[in-house]
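Database export, one record per block. Field names are fixed; values are copied verbatim from the stored entry.
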Amino acid sequence: MVMDLLIPIGIKDRKIVLYTGFISASRTHIEWLKDEIKANFGLDGVIRFNVRAYRLMYAKRSSIILLKKIYYREGLPCLERKRFKIEQALGIISKQADVLKLVYRLD
């Protein structure tokens, strides 16, 4: 079984778009992972079939929570390129949230 963590990041309407996904050829494994994430973190994901594999996807809010749980500490084994990408995205999202708080405070 091969499983991968997908983290597509983009910009739409000047807001960062973040999805976190897991891909596997095994539907049983993806369903188990979805159940475990729901039980441990209370997050709902969506399973989709794409060509030859199943994808378990989480949208922005759930992605932020899930990624902070996965990368909860420095020095954990991980792909540095993915960790870097995640840290960049979470930093941008955090700055956007701070700006929105400031704007709404001025209303």
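Remark 1: The domain at 3-106 is CATH 3.10.28.10 (Endonuclease I-creI).
Remark 2: The chain has one domain: 3-106.
End of record.
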